[in-house]
Amino acid sequence: MFRRPPEDKKPVVLQILPALVSGGVERGTIDVARALVEAGWDALVISAGGPMVHDLTRVGARHIQHPLGSKNPLSWRQNFDWLVDVIHQENVDIVHARSRMPAWIAWRAARKNKIPFVTTFHGRFPDTNPLKKLYNSVMVRGDRVIAISHFVAHEIETRFGTGSDKLRIIPRGVNVDLFNPDAVSAERMIKLSREWRLPDGVPVIVMPGRITRWKGHDILIDALSKLGDQPIHCIMAGSYEGKESYKAELEQKIARAGLNASVMFSGAVVDMPCVYQIADVVVSASIDPEPFGRVMIEAQAMGRPIVATDHGGARESVLPGQTGFLVKPNDAEALAEGIRTALALTAAQRAVVTKTAVAHVRENYTTSDMCARTLSVYQEVLPLSPNAG
């Protein structure tokens, strides 16, 4: 249980990110906002807006629309002055930044108001040159720095020397009420299968995620071509908005491999739990290490075997041989072998994988746990705020 604040002063936590369009960062922001409201705190978010603002306000949080993520230097001073005033006017106790550009503005504004500053390191942010490293360094200037995986935490420690006094590891979580095998009705599965014209009796391979080069869609196509005569139907489930040229490349590769009848692009999907439920195997073929990898825990939450590349966050969330299989990155033959192994599971073996995977996620990677641990971080720094009641 979280400590409820005094009745005369609700602690105010301000989360800042570029926009509320889509993605794991945005979803995590809303999840934490909901937890704050449920704990009796005041949740405030600043972003440039987007369709997920509705989701945010629906949980009882407040949103202020402002483009703090602008990279135009001419706007920086104005944004800083504006944010300093907002923090003062809203009596903010803690500022939590989730992205680098707005973090620079937020860090300075928090210091000006002498209140605690928290960051979440969501990605890898490579230091390609000294200037880039300086730009990235704002994410370790918080009074507390949250890493979304041990992999990211190790990078932070190695590159910036951030110690355990400030660094906190809080993995992303999945809503196990939503991603629950028992909650997806047969009617939903039948409806989606008909919409996508899935062939009866053919194993379904699903690769969730935005269509972008580093996710390894081309490696999966090569792997599928190595499965021989084994019948499969593969769904590339994710948005390709802004990536139409890359999608066209993939489609040409699919045609050359003779896989036109076996591979489809679904575009953005609303009902992902249902997509996982119709899958026999879920694939994550990222070429570069995933900082965490939400696909891995979503697939396991739905009891589906996951075949993922053996690096980054996948090494933490997948139990090899128990909930899925880890394969050599950027290796089509290794990926094909992993898929073969997953497809060859007997009904009894799949039942064991399902039970183990669901239990693994519910024990280690739930949204409620992520939120509880984040609010605990807020409670660590709250005494540093002069506004706290």
How would you explain this protein's 3D organization?
This protein has 389 residues and is an alpha/beta fold. The protein has a seven-stranded parallel sheet, sandwiched between helices. The two termini are 19 Å apart. The N terminus is likely disordered.
What's a concise summary of this model?
By secondary structure, the chain is of the alpha/beta class. The protein contains 15 helices and 13 strands.
Structural class: alpha/beta
Q: Widest sheet: strand order?
A: 3-2-1-4-5-6-7
> What is the CA-CA span between the terminal residues?
19 Å
Proportion of strand residues:
5-15%
Low-confidence stretches: 1-5
The largest β sheet comes out as: 7 strands, parallel
Average predicted confidence as pLDDT? 93
| Extended strand count | 13
Secondary-structure element sequence? Answer: EHEHEHEHEHEHEHEHEHEHEHEHEHHH
Helicity range of the residues? 40-55%
The number of helical elements comes to 15
The coarse silhouette is elongated
Nearest-angstrom radius of gyration? 22 Å
